[in-house]
Amino acid sequence: MFNKNIKLVLTAAIVAYAIYQFVEGYIGNGIFLILLSLIFVFLYFRNEIILLAFLRMRKQDMEGTERWLEKIKNPEAALTTKQQGYYNYLFGIIYSQKNLTQAEKYFRKALKLGLNMDYDLAMAKLSLAGIAMQKRRKREATTLLQEAKKLDKNNMLGEQIKMMQQQMKKI
Questions:
Q1: Which stretches are transmembrane (predicted)?
Q2: pTM above 0.85?
Q3: Domains of the chain in sequence order
């Protein structure tokens, strides 16, 4: 809800007041204020709207996910680079059911900006491979599938990768 810079200012103000409370002898208040400031630090690195959008995505509510993401008016200014990556990743998943060209654009931008988890990188590359396969770009789809297979260390996408490789043989 707050801009990332406002979160940092609030954190600094709360920590300064916590130090004042320590100096005055109110140790309990100071500890509470330090813990309160940690919430703003957490929300600096994990945007609250993106977290809520992921919760909607987990419930398979694509319209709700899109509504939450649309509340971020200027993602370049309001989000850090990794958050922008996840913002585009979520839009890529949403548009993969509507418009493949848009979905491809969002997935590529998410990969360019970066994602934290290897699973998310593998999922984005797998989705891009599926889009490339549907657009008859077999070579690109093969390379993306191999990259997704390398990134999928826990073999969570193993079945999807095998199924897509079988479909590639038919093309």
A1: 31-55
A2: no
A3: 1-45 (no CATH), 47-170 (1.25.40.10)
